[in-house]
Structures are given as C-alpha cells and as structure tokens.
C-alpha cells in the first residue's frame, strides 16, 4: 500500500519540496560542524569549549527558529485559500516579530553568559566558551531576519532559493574559519573566537541575500506593497506567537535535553565532552536533514488543509513519515559503517576517538526514532497543533530521557554511554506518542 500510485505521487511532491529545505536546514548545523572540526584541530580544550558553547547556543537558536516556524503554516494555509492579503500581512508582521526577537535574544543571553561559570565545567573550557558563545548570540539578529524571509518563501512552496543561499554561506563560513581561526591572509589568529566571527559574518550575508530575493523578485510584487509600518498588527503578531511559542518550547525541551546532557557529560571531563560533541554533530546533521522532510510536511499539510482536502492531509502526512523513517534508517547504516573513521576528522586524541565511536553506535540506533518524531512534529505543525506536542517533548526528554541518562551514567557507572542511552529512550517515546497524535487528527 505504501508503494501504491497515490503514495508515490505524494513521495514525489514531498521530495521536490524537501530536498532544498534539507540542504538549507543542513546549513544551520554545518556551521557548528565546521566550527567543531576546525577548532578540534587546535586542541581538545577548544573542541570541548565549542561543545559547551554550541550546546548553550542551541537553546537560543531553537527558540528563535520556533518563533519563525509559525510563519510557514500560516502562509501555506493562506496560499491554499488564495488569500493574498493574509500572506502579505504574514510577511510584514513575521519579519518585524523575528527581528525584535533576535535583538532580545542577543541582549538577554549576552547578559546571562557569565553564569556559564556556575555549570561546574572545567575552568579552562569555560574561559574559552564564554567569548565564543557571546559572538554566536549576536549572530541571532541576522539569523532571525533571514528566517523570516525564508519561512515566508517556504510557505509559498519556494524552497530552492534559501538552499542556494545556505550553501553559499556555508562555503563562506568555512573559508572565513580558515582565515580567522588560524590567522591567514594577514589576519590575526583568533582561535576559537575566529570560528564565531566567521559564523556571524556568514549569517549577515545570508540575511542580506534572502532579503534581496524577497524585495527584488517579481513574484513577490503583490506582497511588497504591504511592507509598511501601518500594516503592522499586534493581532497578527500575537497569533504568530500563539503558534510559534509552543513550537519554541517543544524545540527547547528537545534540544535543551541534548544541551543539558552535554553539561552532565562535562562533569566527567573534557575528553568525554569532546567525544560527545563529535557524536552530537553527526546526529545533528541527520536530524537537520530529516527536519527538511518535516518542513515539507508542514507546507503540504498546511496547504492541503487550507484547501479543505482532508484525504490529501492524511496522505501527505503519512508519506512524509515513511520518507523520514527510510532516510534515517539509511543514515543509521552509514553511521555504523563509518563510526571509527568519523572521529579522526575532529581530533587526534585516541581516547576521544574511541569514546566517540561508541557514542556513534547509540546515535545510529536512535536514528529511526529521531526521524519519526521530527517529521511527526512537522505534520502536526501543518495542522497548527502545537501545544500537545510541546508537552510530549517535555515528558519524553525531561521526565524520561535525562533522569534515565543520569541514572545509567552516574548511578550505574556507564558514563557518557549511559547518558546517550537515556536520550535514545526519550526519543523513542516521543516518536511513538507523536505518531499516534497525528493518527488521531488524520484518520484514514
């Protein structure tokens, strides 16, 4: 049945929407991957500091992304109804809301960054992590501007442009990393901070390029006339927050669990934290790629819902779940095959490489659960069902994953392996609950 002609049509439609989003979403995580790989070449302390800094920044990042994700289902639903005025107002108010949120997130977490010293992490790691993460916090401002235009375009099923921009920005980021980390072309060697400055610059470029596309492309002419101060509406922004804030909470509950797991692993030492960063980088890459399928599910479910096609909603959601599961199963096989090779790209320390290879096996095992839960979330967002999924994430990660991981890691004595087994448990529970949640709202 899942290979029948109707499903194949949905696979095709979802694929052509998803692959540009996959590459675009991959761009966000490849920034931290590039930072970690190139920082690891300096030393284990720098890699551990990048792990701690990126774990903290991830919480800020996903909160901002969650707010911006509210734009896509609203635009997709309005597009399904051919309501062009509503689409234009989503652009105006979404851009303004995102920009304000980016500024507030930067200011709030820059002020709070000294508290990192109280997380009981190695002193040398904290000393390197604080200035690094402060620069990353500043990059939230251009990133949120980019997200506003990106999510608007994706709501209209225009996904390729942000893909091209993200690819360009990643190439730029890697080049700037080389120049600024190691001090090439006459620039001073900034070490780990050079990676953060490279990220900031590349995100400014991303924002400018995406804004240029929306402001200059003829296809958006009908919406640009609404980009005026008088069209700002607290009613529209409040609705976006009503959808976006639960998405942010859900993402914080999930990513925050991974970030806090880094804090727990930091209690074990810098080598354990460095190994954790390697495994987490790999898992994050596959997760962000699956989240591209999730974003396509949001677009297609939202648009079909707006058009009143209940059967299409069902087919679009289930075909996306199947695609996500198949993709992550393939990723699991590749991770297991390359578990000993991957750590060599990050660090030269044999102890770190050995532990990272063990963690990668667990990362491979939870790929299927991770794929089902992230695509399930995307399909539910297309239905604007966001509150219950956020509660599912709170339950799965903070009431199950972290306590189980702490018990296995510290009481049973499995260390980092135990903490990762706890994460696997939480992901699996979340996947099952989200699948049945979508099934409830999308009967055959």
Features:
mainly alpha, 16 helices, 444 residues
Describe this structure in words.
The protein is mainly alpha-helical. The chain has one domain. Helix 1 packs antiparallel against helix 11 and helix 10 packs antiparallel against helix 11. The longest helix has 37 residues. The radius of gyration is 21 Å and the shape is globular. The mean pLDDT is 85.
Tell me the Rg in angstroms. Answer: 21 Å
State the helical fraction. over 70%
So what's the overall shape?
A: globular
What sequence of helices (H) and strands (E) makes up the elements? HHHHHHHHHHHHHHHH
**Into which percentage range does the β-strand content fall?**
under 5%
Rounded average pLDDT = 85
Tally the structural domains: 1
**Helix/strand/pairing category:** mainly alpha
> Which residues sit in consecutive blocks of at least 5 with pLDDT less than 50?
none
Quaternary structure state of the chains depicted? single chain
- For the record, give the distance between the C-alpha atoms at the N and C termini, rounded to a whole number: 13 Å
Q: State the helix count.
A: 16
Largest sheet: none
Number of strands: 0
Helix-strand layout with pairing:
Blueprint (H helix, E strand, L loop, with lengths): L4 H36 L3 H26 L1 H10 L3 H29 L10 H16 L1 H16 L4 H23 L9 H25 L4 H4 L9 H33 L3 H37 L3 H28 L12 H16 L1 H16 L4 H25 L4 H26 L3
């Amino acid at each position: 049945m899942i290979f029948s002609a109707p499903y194949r049509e949905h696979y095709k439609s979802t694929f052509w929407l998803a692959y540009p989003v996959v590459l675009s979403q991959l761009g966000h995580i490849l920034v931290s991957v590039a930072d970690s790989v190139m920082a690891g070449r300096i030393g284990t302390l720098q890699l551990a500091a990048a792990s701690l800094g990126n774990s903290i920044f991830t919480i800020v990042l996903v909160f901002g992304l969650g707010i911006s994700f509210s734009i896509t289902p609203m635009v997709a639903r309005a597009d399904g109804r051919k309501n062009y005025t509503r689409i234009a107002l989503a652009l105006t108010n979404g851009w303004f809301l995102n920009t304000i949120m980016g500024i507030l997130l930067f200011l709030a977490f820059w002020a709070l960054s000294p508290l990192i010293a109280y997380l009981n992490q190695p002193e040398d790691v904290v000393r390197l992590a604080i200035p690094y993460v402060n620069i990353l916090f500043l990059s939230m401002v251009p990133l949120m501007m980019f997200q506003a235009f990106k999510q608007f375009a994706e709501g209209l099923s225009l996904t390729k442009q942000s893909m091209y921009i993200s690819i360009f920005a990643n190439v730029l980021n890697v080049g700037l990393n080389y120049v600024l980390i190691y001090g090439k072309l006459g620039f001073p060697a900034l070490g780990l901070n050079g990676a953060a400055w490279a990220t900031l610059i590349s995100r400014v470029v991303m924002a400018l390029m995406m804004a240029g596309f929306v402001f200059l492309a003829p296809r958006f002419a009908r919406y640009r006339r609404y980009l005026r101060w008088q069209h700002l509406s607290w009613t529209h922004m409040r609705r976006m927050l009503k959808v976006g804030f639960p998405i942010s909470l859900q993402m914080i509950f999930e990513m925050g669990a991974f970030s806090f797991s880094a804090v727990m692993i930091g209690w074990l030492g810098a080598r354990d934290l460095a190994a954790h960063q390697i495994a987490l980088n790999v898992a994050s890459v596959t997760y962000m790629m699956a989240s591209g399928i999730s974003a396509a599910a949001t677009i297609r479910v939202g648009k079909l819902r707006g058009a009143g096609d209940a059967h299409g909603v069902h087919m679009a959601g289930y075909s996306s779940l199947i695609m996500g599961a198949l993709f992550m199963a393939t990723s699991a096989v590749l991770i297991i095959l390359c578990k000993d090779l991957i750590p060599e790209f990050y660090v030269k320390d044999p102890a770190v490489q050995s532990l990272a290879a063990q963690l990668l096996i667990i990362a491979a095992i939870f790929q299927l659960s991770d794929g089902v839960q992230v695509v399930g979330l995307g399909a539910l967002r297309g239905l604007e069902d966001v509150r219950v999924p956020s509660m599912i994430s709170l339950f799965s990660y903070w009431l199950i994953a972290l306590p189980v991981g702490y018990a296995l890691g510290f009481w049973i004595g499995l260390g980092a392996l135990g903490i990762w087994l706890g994460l696997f448990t939480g992901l699996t529970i979340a996947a099952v609950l989200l699948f049945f949640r979508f099934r409830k709202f999308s009967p055959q």
